Amino acid sequence: MSFRDFIQQAKSSGDLIAIDKPVNLKFETANVAHALAGRLALFNHIEGHPGWRICAGPCSDRRYFSMDLGVPVMGLTQHLAQALAAPRTPPIVASGACQEVVVETVNLNQLPILLHLPQDAGHYIASAAVITKDPEHGRNMCYHRLLRLDDKRFAARIIEQRGTYNAIQKTEGDLPIAICIGVSLAVHLAASMSPPPEVDELAVAHALKPTPLVKCRTNDLVVPADAEIILEGRITRQQVSEGPFMDLTETMDIIRQQPVIEIDAITHRRNPIFHALLPGGLEHKLLMGMPREPTILAEVNQVARCTGVIITPGGASWLHAVVQIEKRGAEDGRRAIAAAFKGHRSLKHVWVVDSDVDIYDPAQVEWAMATRFQADKDMVLMENRPGSSLDPSGIHMPGQKSRTAKAGFDCTIPWNGDPAKFQRGRYGDVDLADYLAAG
């Protein structure tokens, strides 16, 4: 379903919080959204922007993805893995709701773009799914944070050696771009997945949920037809200072020289809803972490029977994972550790547990480590490995891959141990209503 269809569904289920008090884009909207972390909020009155609304939090809870995709929370990782393995080419339709209104004169100041933190370089868009075309591999969709420079230009953080950066290197002159705001949750997940270059993320989105596309008005790119807002433009060869900006780890990223995007056209739905994604917040974390779970699952399944994976929010939804396996051999735990690091190369620490441990309950994972793990036998330590640039404790040298130490913890029942010794006792279930009513 579309972004606004999901908002309506959340309203019907009682999950939507409507904010009718007028809010300011300078810190206030971000502060209120942060105070409602994990909840879906719709701001109906934006100071200085009549007719616009802002939605925050649609991707802040796994339950919302479950509601939208019609898949149980425990089945989301497998659903993502299936879509990644079998993308479906989306249809191109003649017209789309995203082009109901064509803005006559481009003025980015008319968009309700938030100023999140006093340390930020300016007003940033953090929720945009960005579409480009690689001359060799074709269509690509990903995320780039966008710093508004003036009424027609953004500075974009474009990470080196990845899809958009590589397409720029293969293109003479400007690279056409489409910036999509207020897209479906399926499109958000697909844009986050980072599949191989030849895999079309929009086809992954269509495999998750039907995602019709429509052609842009000023270039040859196509975009989700039901998006709220589309900005059509070009990535130029000009560079400016970009940053600071709060990143996934809730620490401030540095200032860099980054490319300038010039906007040529703006279209949007009637009564548009702007998606405000808070940097370092739950949406940022889930959209970074969840799409890495199917890649870990696939790698671990090559060496053991993997029954679940979660990238944990305590590890900034990027650096820590818990892997659940059905142990069939003495070395399965260690094999799973190695495979997990292969499935997500930015991973720093991983815990492997048995299938009787609820990986969504941190207390159960800690219990497994307390009762089934011995550091001198069950820890795998790797020194000076390629790591994540997001880890402030890593070693970072300009022009070089970040380095870090990595550790894996095999918290499964020892292979030669007595299984009964490691089982948790379980009380019987009761219907408390029978007892509380009597009281």
Describe this structure in words.
The chain is an alpha+beta fold. The chain folds into 2 domains: 181 residues, Electron Transport, Fmn-binding Protein, Chain A (Pnp Oxidase, Chain A); 136 residues, UbiD C-terminal domain-like. 25% of the residues lie in helices and 27% in strands. Strands 5, 6, 7, 8, 9, 10, 11, 14 and 17 form a 9-stranded antiparallel β-sheet that branches. α4 packs across α7, α4 packs across α9 and α6 packs across α7. The N and C termini lie far apart (46 Å). The model has no long low-confidence stretch (mean pLDDT 95).
CATH topology of the largest domain: Pnp Oxidase, Chain A
Q: Shape, please?
A: globular
CATH homologous superfamily caption of the largest domain: Electron Transport, Fmn-binding Protein, Chain A
How many distinct folded domains?
2
Unreliable spans are none
**Main beta sheet, described?**
9 strands, antiparallel
Q: Number of DSSP helices?
A: 13
Percent in strands: 25-35%
* Secondary-structure-derived class: alpha+beta
Rounded to an integer in angstroms, the radius of gyration calculated over CA atoms is 23 Å
Reading off the top of the CATH hierarchy, the class of the largest domain is best stated as Mainly Beta
Mean pLDDT: 95
Please tell me the CATH architecture of the largest domain by its name: Roll
Distance between the termini: 46 Å
Q: What portion of residues is helical?
A: 10-25%
Number of strands: 23
